[in-house]
TrEMBL record:
Residues 1-151, 155-317 form the FAS1 domain. It comes from the Eukaryota. PANTHER family: FI19380P1, PERIOSTIN-RELATED. It comes from Ceratitis capitata. This is Fasciclin-1.
Amino acid sequence: STVTQFLQSFKLMNDNENGALRKFYNVIMDNGGEVLTDISNLGEITILAPSNDAWAAKSVENNLGNREKVRSILNMHIIKGKLNVAQIHQKNAKMIAQVPTVNDRTFLYFNIRNENGEDVITVEGGGVNATVLQADVAQTNGYVHIIDKVLGIPYTTVLEKLETDPMMSDTFKLGQFSDFNNQLNNTKRRFTYFVPRDKAWQKTKLDYPSTHKKLFMEDFSYHSRSILERHLVIADKVYTMNDLVAMTAESGDSVLLPTYRDSLKVKVEEEAGHLHDDSGLIEWTGYVITWNFKKINVYRPDVECTNGIIHVIDYPMLEERDVVVNGG
């Protein structure tokens, strides 16, 4: 059967009849059924389908009444083209795989880790990390992967997201040295955190080997904290990438954002063709931050959390002179 026919097969099922995706199908139909029509028209397709239990989460149920929001969430679970586990492995050979969805300018990020000799595949979308429960449910025109959470409805704080996301482990580790991370669980504040991904810190190891080595030693926690404070904006609102682009355009130059001790001066712009897929044939618009005359690519914009937003960046806002130790 096709992916559409496979989903329609759950129409009359209940949980006792192994209707694993019954609620997913019902949400589509309760929202008018247009998403199912889109799926039928896409040809080759891959669906990340949340299980019945995933839809029962309180945070998810609170959003089901918003038709526009639900449509956006459903589209975040749809990928054009066939994507099976073998291809996810291939994409993860050198880095965490980034895959565009049919939801405009929204991407999924696949990661593979080994637990007790078995591969566990996780996928991140819209601030939510989900685990693939059943992969490669093959249909004539694509694949369905059953996941344990609904993507796009955040349920973690900035700290919890930082701690659980495999792409942000080095930044989390640096924050632990100086207790910098503790504040990120505060739900009464709104954080905008520019988080260097692990690969970003690896780049500094090549550019500033001595500085990188010191940063990842607990004895230099004062320096690492000062650098992280530069990346954390604390205000009464969060700043999406679109917000920052608009503010930059309005000012005609850089904008000042309030940080823990001082302010962060950045210019944020969009660049066409800034991001591309592994083949290099498909390009899309991305964001670039200019800080201290350096251009820093935004790898993952607008990762939502319950108390803020994270922008994953490709290089830290770091200078070699940030870690200077006087001899004695």
